[in-house]
Predict the 3D structure of the following.
Amino acid sequence: MEIPGILTGDFLILVTILFMTPYPLHNILFLDIETVPQHPSFELVPNDWKDLWTKKAEALLRNREDETTESIYPRAGIYAEFGKIICISCGVLQGTGDQKKIVLKSFAGDNEKIVLHEFSEMLKKWSAGEQKFLCAHNGKEFDFPYLCRRLIINGLPIPGILNASGKKPWEVSHLDTMELWKFGDFKSYTSLNLLAHALGIATPKDDIDGSMVWEVYWKEKNTDRIVTYCQKDVITVVQIFLRMQGEPLIKNENIEIKS
């Protein structure tokens, strides 16, 4: 006998996703993005955007007498309206047993529209067929919505697997290592670096951290350094996810970077 409503149709999909153990590791695309303010400094921001940033900064400057609208402009990169994406690094797991490896691919450059287009084309091809998942650390709060917003701003379509708008929760194929680590604790925020340390995984912050990306990009003009940093973050997300699934970590010699 069919039980009406709750145990039929879409709910069964939700149950399948929530209680799928382990996750299909080879069907997950792990990713990380690096963003910067759209201009090298506040002085070079067009006047209309200066006004908008000043209004945004008012909320950020509350109870921070040591900061100004100009001094916090480097933080503009974390807001999709004021920033842009300069690097998207992705990783997938391939092989089994001792032959299991992480394969990395990055899309980077000064032209955000090209970066997003190339990433989107790859994502559409990769996600075709059987159900696939995207995974990032704090991805549901940052990476995934930021990508969608910048795609819209650049006049590009959002790949189906990335777009959560209008979908039911069980129809969204997004995984988030920070959310998984919360175990239902909505108050908890755990950085990627802290979680890696807690789990005995090598830190990705051995050269630069997120707060330094804008300077490396706008002052050093060193995109390659940012790509390397972004790829390390992806590797760390993969290793954290594997630990949380009770899987062995990937050896350094089994990490492959595709050009």
Notes: The chain is about 35% helix and 15% strand. The beta strands are 28-37, 83-94, 101-108, 133-136, 174-176, 255-258.
